Structure formats: structure tokens, C-alpha cells
């Protein structure tokens, strides 16, 4: 099984990010989307938990069980 990691802040998660997920799933069997918090960066639009919820909702519709979002 080929597994890939897609790390980022995803603030916000965009259609461009979703396109990368779709393309990665064409190559890999499973994709882990790792949501990072960077306290050195500007004030985020969404908390990490809010971003995870938004990403999980997008991935649930688009990719079923072949991807998952995780906090880093």
C-alpha cells in the first residue's frame, strides 16, 4: 500500500487543495492531510479544530475512505 502525507496550514482549505488531494489519490492508495498550527504566523482565519472539520467535510464528499485529516 502506498501512503502519502500532505502537510499544510490549510487556512482556509481551498478548491486548489482539494484538487491536489484528488491528484494524489490517483497516484497513492491513501493520503493523510496533516493540518499544522504555526504560532509564528499571522492570526489564522480558523482554529485548527475548525480547519479539521472543514477539511473532513470536504474529503468526506470527495474521497470517501481514501484520505483522512489529522492535527500535527
Tell me about this structure.
- This protein has 72 residues and is α/β, with parallel strands linked by helices.
- Helices cover 40% and strands 24% of the residues.
- The chain is built from two helices and three strands.
- The protein has helices at residues 15-27, 48-63; strands at residues 3-8, 30-35, 67-71.
- The protein has a three-stranded parallel β-sheet with strand order 1-2-3.
- Helix 1 (15-27) links the parallel strand 1 and strand 2 (30-35).
- Helix 1 packs across helix 2.
- The chain is globular and about 35 Å long.
- The two termini are 23 Å apart.
Kindly list the characteristics that best describe this protein.
72 residues; alpha/beta; 2 helices
Provide a quick synopsis of the model.
The chain has 72 residues and is of the alpha/beta class.
| Major sheet characteristics | 3 strands, parallel
Query: Using only CA atoms, what is the Rg?
Result: 12 Å
Give the helices and strands as they follow along the chain: EHEHE
N-to-C CA distance? 23 Å
- The overall pLDDT average reads 86
Helix fraction? Answer: 40-55%
Contiguous helical run count: 2
Unreliable parts: none
Quote the beta fraction.
15-25%
Tertiary shape: globular
Output the structural class. Answer: alpha/beta
Q: Spatial order of the strands in the main sheet?
A: 1-2-3
Number of strands: 3
